[in-house]
């Protein structure tokens, strides 16, 4: 029997040693605790082997003392394991580790000192039926301390696991319950020995087996099982369809997405296997070879795009174990990619090609057809910024959409078109297919803003004939827009071709525009004054006319730059500067006591749209401390044609503030009488060029006579400009006009000369 006990204990010890060695490479905290538990258990087994082998009582007592000490530490590490396993290892507890160390230290010293004082237990001889001698312990009162420590450790371990099992989720509860069963097994083994009459303490076997089970379950089985279950849950919840196959190609698992992919209503594996076979076409899958392929299916008339991936599973020696299919629904990804590709090549508002895509497509077409003759057309809307500002962005967008519709409906299939930027569009056509009436026809029908305000929308078209296809498309477009720049303010022309002379003109315009800011800052922009006289030849005031003393080009007359600035919008800045110079001059005259003189300034049509005239002029007279009556404002009737109600309100405010408003070039428009009916002005200004524009001068004189008579009855003074001859002066005096301006009296002159001559 002794040999059987030794063999049994040795076998258990070898198992413990094996587990201890296997656990040595694991640095996880719970693995460290299990190693210590196994080590204490191995020491207890060795001590028990000594108890079985010895026939000397004293040696037996020493071995039992060591055994009991080892059991203390086994149970302590079981408790530590329960804490780590439950996730409470790093938290504060009622009994921190140092308290347990003190208790265990006291109990260990008690057990070891028993060798000398026999205060805890003693040993008695037990003989078996075969006559073999063994020693069994006889407990004393101090042995109860050892039992109390042991039972406390067991109780705390059990409570920790029960508490965790109750509070955790169902998927994890099983692992805590299994460890609880292991501890119950250990306690049951110890209880079996206490109430039995076996000559040897075999409870160590239950302790050892429990330690081995703890090692396997906590260090090996639970992580693997938890990983397996987690992976199954992850696979089950994946959006991709997953089919797992064994080495024979049979489907052994399919997640919910796989069921949806096969449109299967059943969940049993055999039916899934049948459906999978039908889908895969009974193909023999290649071993040790991974591949992928696209798949397109149609559901409810909608195309669904998939990517199918096949992967082989190999063991450590490279042997084929099985495989799996992953079927990814890439419909949204591909649709997003297609949407991004579309957005990268198309204009967001109109849906036409954007600038970069238009350039690329035109370059590709020209490269593919080197012998073809092509025209590049670019369009631009006159005063589009003003349209946006006055009529609102929604009207502007509607206008752009109208142009896009024209291009879609009126172009041929092979022609390329796109929106380049803002209100600019491009179109590539074969020279033989060019239709000059294309845009003009649709412009009348589509490109007209409706509502409370009528504005004659016009589209200018620049045409570049492509003779050198190596030139970048962007440069071709620039040249087409150069052609547009020539006609942008020529309301009778809407189409222009590019030629080399345009380039120099555009460069000249750009240079003057670029020089304007510096010219205003450095005093190069000056006002010349042309006197306005009464019938007696006395000076009443003057009209301010702009001149530019350019450092490189000399004195520039208005005709050399006014048209350019009206075309590109810089006229507004120039007008504001001229008005400021006029107010500054009026202030000087006021300081000299000549508040009887006035200066007339011109207001351009674009000024009415881009600035608040009342705020601007009111601010100037306040800044320079001058009377509003000394600053006369000349507005052409043409400028009043658009948004008449708004302009009437503005003129009324100016007149109420004391400004004198003159109707310039009266009679040159198409609705002068209607304007005179609606617009309350202080002075009418007529141009004597009216007489030179007709062969029937007598008829023209009668019309002028009627205008002067009409103004007299309306009590509106009349001033005539462009007076150049004595004959004209006499005729004007005869019909009742007694205020004059023109070369007959004086040409425009510098301010200093004006002051020397008339002040």
Poorly predicted regions: 441-449
Radius of gyration of CA atoms, rounded to a whole number: 53 Å
Please report the total strand number as a whole number: 22
How would you name the oligomeric state of the polypeptide chains in this document?
Answer: single chain
Largest sheet: 8 strands, mixed, barrel
Q: Structural class, please?
A: alpha/beta
- Taking the alpha carbons of the first and last residues, their distance comes to 147 Å
Summarize the structure.
The protein is of the alpha/beta class and 759 residues long. Helices cover 53% and strands 19% of the residues.
Give an overview of the whole structure.
- With 759 residues, the chain is an alpha/beta fold.
- It has four domains: 2-231, Rhopdopsin 7-helix transmembrane proteins (Up-down Bundle); 240-335, PAS domain (Beta-Lactamase), CATH 3.30.450.20; 348-498, 2-Layer Sandwich (Alpha-Beta Plaits); 512-758, EAL domain (TIM Barrel), CATH 3.20.20.
- Helices cover 53% and strands 19% of the residues.
- The chain contains 26 helices and 22 strands.
- The strands form four sheets. The protein has an eight-stranded mixed beta barrel with strand order 13-14-16-17-18-19-20-21, surrounded by five helices. The protein has a five-stranded antiparallel β-sheet with strand order 4-3-7-6-5. It has a five-stranded mixed β-sheet with strand order 9-10-8-11-12, with helices on both faces.
- β11, α15 and β12 form a beta-alpha-beta unit.
- The radius of gyration is 53 Å and the shape is elongated.
- Mean pLDDT is 83; it is low at 441-449.
């Amino acid at each position: 029997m002794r040999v059987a006990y030794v063999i049994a204990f040795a076998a258990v010890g070898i198992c413990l040693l094996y587990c201890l060695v296997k656990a040595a490479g694991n640095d996880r905290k719970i693995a460290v605790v299990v190693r210590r538990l196994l080590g204490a258990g191995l020491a207890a087994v060795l001590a028990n082997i000594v108890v079985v082998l010895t026939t000397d009582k004293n040696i037996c007592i020493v071995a039992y003392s060591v055994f009991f000490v080892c059991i203390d530490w086994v149970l302590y590490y079981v408790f530590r394991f329960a804490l780590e396993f439950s996730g409470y290892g790093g938290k504060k507890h009622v009994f921190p580790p140092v308290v347990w160390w003190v208790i265990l230290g006291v109990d260990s010293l008690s057990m070891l000192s028993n060798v000398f004082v026999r205060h805890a237990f003693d040993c008695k001889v037990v003989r078996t039926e075969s006559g073999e001698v063994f020693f069994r312990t006889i407990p004393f009162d101090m042995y109860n301390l050892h039992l109390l420590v042991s039972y406390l450790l067991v109780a705390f371990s059990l409570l920790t696991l029960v508490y965790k099992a109750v509070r955790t989720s169902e998927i994890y509860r099983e692992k805590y319950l299994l460890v609880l069963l292991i501890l119950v097994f250990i306690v049951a083994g110890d209880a079996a020995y206490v109430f039995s009459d076996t000559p040897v303490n075999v409870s160590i076997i239950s302790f050892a087996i429990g330690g081995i089970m703890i090692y396997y379950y906590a260090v090996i089985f639970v992580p693997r099982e938890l990983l397996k279950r987690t992976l199954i849950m992850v696979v089950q919840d994946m959006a991709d369809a997953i089919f797992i196959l064994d080495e024979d190609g049979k489907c052994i698992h399919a997640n919910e997405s796989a069921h949806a992919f096969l449109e299967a209503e059943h969940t049993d594996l055999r039916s899934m296997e049948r459906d999978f076979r039908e889908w895969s076409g009974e193909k023999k899958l290649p071993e040790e070879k991974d591949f992928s392929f696209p798949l397109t299916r149609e559901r409810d008339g909608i195309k669904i795009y998939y990517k199918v991936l096949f992967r082989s599973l190999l063991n450590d020696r490279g042997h084929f174990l099985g495989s799996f299919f992953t079927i990814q629904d890439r419909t949204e990804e591909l649709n997003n990619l297609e949407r991004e590709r579309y957005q990268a090549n198309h204009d967001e508002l109109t849906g036409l090609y954007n600038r970069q895509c238009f350039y690329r497509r035109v370059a590709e077409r020209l490269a593919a057809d080197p012998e073809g003759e092509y025209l590049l057309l670019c369009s631009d809307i006159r005063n589009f910024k003003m349209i946006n500002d006055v009529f609102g962005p929604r009207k502007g967008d509607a206008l752009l959409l109208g142009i896009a519709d024209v291009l879609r409906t009126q172009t041929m299939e092979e022609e390329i078109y796109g929106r380049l930027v803002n209100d600019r569009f491009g179109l590539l056509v074969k020279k033989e297919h060019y239709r000059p009436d294309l845009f003009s026809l649709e412009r009348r029908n589509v490109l007209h803003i409706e509502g409370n305000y009528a504005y004659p929308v016009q589209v200018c078209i620049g045409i570049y004939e492509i003779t050198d296809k190596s030139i970048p498309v962007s440069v071709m477009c620039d040249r087409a827009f150069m052609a547009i720049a020539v006609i942008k303010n020529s309301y009778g022309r809407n189409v222009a071709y590019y030629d080399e002379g345009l380039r120099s003109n555009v460069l000249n315009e750009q240079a003057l525009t670029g020089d304007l800011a510096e010219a205003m800052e450095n005093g190069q922009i000056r006002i010349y004054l042309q006197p306005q006289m009464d019938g007696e030849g006395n000076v009443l005031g003057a009209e301010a006319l702009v001149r530019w003393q350019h450092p490189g080009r000399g004195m520039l007359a208005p005709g050399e730059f006014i048209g350019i600035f009206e075309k590109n919008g810089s006229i507004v800045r120039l007008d504001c500067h001229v008005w400021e110079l006029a107010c500054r001059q009026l202030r000087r005259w006021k300081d000299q006591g000549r508040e009887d003189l006035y200066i007339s300034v011109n207001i351009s049509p674009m000024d009415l749209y881009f600035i608040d005239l009342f705020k601007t002029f009111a601010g100037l007279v306040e800044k320079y401390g001058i009377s509003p009556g000394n600053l006369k404002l000349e507005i052409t009737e043409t400028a009043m044609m658009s948004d008449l109600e708004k302009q009437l309100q503005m003129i009324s405010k100016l007149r109420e503030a004391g400004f004198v408003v003159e109707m310039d070039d009266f009679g040159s428009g198409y609705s002068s009488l209607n304007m005179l009916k609606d617009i309350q002005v202080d002075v009418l200004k007529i141009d004597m060029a009216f007489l030179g524009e007709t062969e029937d001068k007598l008829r023209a004189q009668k019309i002028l006579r009627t205008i002067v008579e009409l103004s007299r009855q309306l009590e509106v003074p009349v001033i005539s400009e462009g007076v150049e001859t004595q004959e004209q002066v006499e005729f004007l005096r005869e019909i009742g006009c007694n205020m004059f301006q023109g070369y007959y009296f004086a040409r425009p002159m510098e301010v200093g000369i004006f002051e020397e001559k008339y002040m």
